[in-house]
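[Automated response] Your request has been received and processed.

Submitted sequence:
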Amino acid sequence: MAHFSSMAHAAENLPDETTSTGSGIKLNRQFLQLRPDPTGPQHDAREPGYFWGRLKWKLGYREIRPDAVLYSSVYKRFAAEKVQHYYEAKAYRAENLSKHGKLQQYYGQELQGPPASA
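Generated structure:
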Protein backbone atom coordinates (compact mmCIF):
# COMPACT_ATOMS: atom_id res chain seq x y z
CA MET A 1 0.00 0.00 0.00
CA ALA A 2 1.24 3.42 -0.74
CA HIS A 3 0.89 6.61 1.18
CA PHE A 4 -0.52 9.37 -1.06
CA SER A 5 1.33 12.31 0.44
CA SER A 6 4.61 10.39 0.00
CA MET A 7 3.69 9.78 -3.63
CA ALA A 8 2.79 13.45 -4.04
CA HIS A 9 6.06 14.46 -2.39
CA ALA A 10 7.95 12.16 -4.76
CA ALA A 11 6.06 13.50 -7.79
CA GLU A 12 6.91 17.04 -6.82
CA ASN A 13 10.62 16.18 -6.54
CA LEU A 14 10.97 14.35 -9.86
CA PRO A 15 12.49 16.16 -12.85
CA ASP A 16 9.87 18.19 -14.68
CA GLU A 17 9.59 20.51 -17.66
CA THR A 18 11.45 23.23 -15.72
CA THR A 19 14.76 21.31 -15.80
CA SER A 20 17.60 22.64 -17.93
CA THR A 21 16.84 20.02 -20.60
CA GLY A 22 13.09 20.71 -20.47
CA SER A 23 12.39 17.01 -20.11
CA GLY A 24 10.72 15.13 -17.33
CA ILE A 25 7.26 14.64 -15.87
CA LYS A 26 4.72 17.32 -16.74
CA LEU A 27 2.48 18.12 -13.76
CA ASN A 28 -0.86 19.72 -14.51
CA ARG A 29 -1.70 21.55 -11.26
CA GLN A 30 -5.33 21.87 -12.40
CA PHE A 31 -5.76 18.11 -11.87
CA LEU A 32 -2.99 17.18 -9.43
CA GLN A 33 -3.50 19.05 -6.19
CA LEU A 34 -0.50 18.32 -4.00
CA ARG A 35 -1.32 18.57 -0.31
CA PRO A 36 1.73 17.44 1.62
CA ASP A 37 -0.21 16.42 4.72
CA PRO A 38 1.48 13.47 6.44
CA THR A 39 -1.82 12.66 8.18
CA GLY A 40 -3.83 12.61 4.96
CA PRO A 41 -5.97 9.65 3.89
CA GLN A 42 -4.24 6.30 3.37
CA HIS A 43 -4.19 5.16 -0.24
CA ASP A 44 -4.93 1.50 -0.91
CA ALA A 45 -4.49 0.47 -4.55
CA ARG A 46 -6.49 -2.71 -3.82
CA GLU A 47 -9.66 -0.77 -3.05
CA PRO A 48 -12.44 -0.91 -4.00
CA GLY A 49 -11.40 -4.13 -5.76
CA TYR A 50 -13.09 -5.57 -8.78
CA PHE A 51 -16.31 -7.48 -9.49
CA TRP A 52 -18.19 -4.91 -7.40
CA GLY A 53 -15.76 -5.16 -4.49
CA ARG A 54 -16.07 -8.92 -4.07
CA LEU A 55 -12.47 -9.59 -5.11
CA LYS A 56 -9.35 -7.70 -4.06
CA TRP A 57 -5.87 -7.64 -5.51
CA LYS A 58 -3.31 -9.71 -3.59
CA LEU A 59 -1.81 -7.83 -0.64
CA GLY A 60 1.89 -7.15 -1.09
CA TYR A 61 4.55 -5.04 0.59
CA ARG A 62 7.89 -3.65 -0.55
CA GLU A 63 10.84 -4.81 1.51
CA ILE A 64 12.25 -1.95 3.58
CA ARG A 65 15.71 -2.28 5.10
CA PRO A 66 15.90 -1.61 8.87
CA ASP A 67 18.33 1.27 8.19
CA ALA A 68 16.54 2.75 5.17
CA VAL A 69 16.36 6.55 4.91
CA LEU A 70 12.75 7.69 5.36
CA TYR A 71 11.06 10.98 4.44
CA SER A 72 10.37 13.21 7.43
CA SER A 73 6.65 12.86 6.63
CA VAL A 74 6.84 9.15 7.52
CA TYR A 75 7.88 9.99 11.10
CA LYS A 76 5.07 12.57 11.34
CA ARG A 77 2.55 10.01 10.08
CA PHE A 78 3.66 7.46 12.68
CA ALA A 79 3.47 10.06 15.46
CA ALA A 80 -0.14 11.00 14.57
CA GLU A 81 -2.77 9.45 16.82
CA LYS A 82 -4.96 8.44 13.84
CA VAL A 83 -4.98 8.64 10.06
CA GLN A 84 -7.83 7.76 7.74
CA HIS A 85 -7.33 4.31 6.25
CA TYR A 86 -9.68 3.28 3.50
CA TYR A 87 -12.59 2.34 5.81
CA GLU A 88 -11.49 3.47 9.29
CA ALA A 89 -9.35 5.92 11.23
CA LYS A 90 -6.49 4.30 13.15
CA ALA A 91 -2.80 4.63 13.92
CA TYR A 92 -0.48 4.21 10.92
CA ARG A 93 1.58 1.07 11.43
CA ALA A 94 2.85 -0.15 8.07
CA GLU A 95 3.76 -3.82 8.44
CA ASN A 96 6.81 -3.51 6.21
CA LEU A 97 8.27 -0.80 8.48
CA SER A 98 7.92 -2.84 11.68
CA LYS A 99 11.62 -3.76 11.71
CA HIS A 100 12.91 -0.24 10.93
CA GLY A 101 15.36 0.82 13.63
CA LYS A 102 13.92 4.33 14.08
CA LEU A 103 10.28 3.22 14.32
CA GLN A 104 10.44 0.45 16.93
CA GLN A 105 8.74 2.55 19.62
CA TYR A 106 5.51 2.57 17.56
CA TYR A 107 5.09 -1.19 17.42
CA GLY A 108 3.75 -3.43 20.16
CA GLN A 109 3.89 -7.17 20.52
CA GLU A 110 1.21 -7.66 17.87
CA LEU A 111 3.71 -7.21 14.99
CA GLN A 112 6.95 -8.24 16.69
CA GLY A 113 5.70 -11.67 17.74
CA PRO A 114 5.76 -13.35 21.13
CA PRO A 115 8.76 -12.85 23.42
CA ALA A 116 11.53 -15.44 23.16
CA SER A 117 11.25 -18.10 25.87
CA ALA A 118 14.20 -18.58 28.22
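Summary generated for your ticket: The first strand starts at residue 83 and ends at 84. The beta strands are 83-84, 89-90.
If you did not submit this request, please reply to this message.
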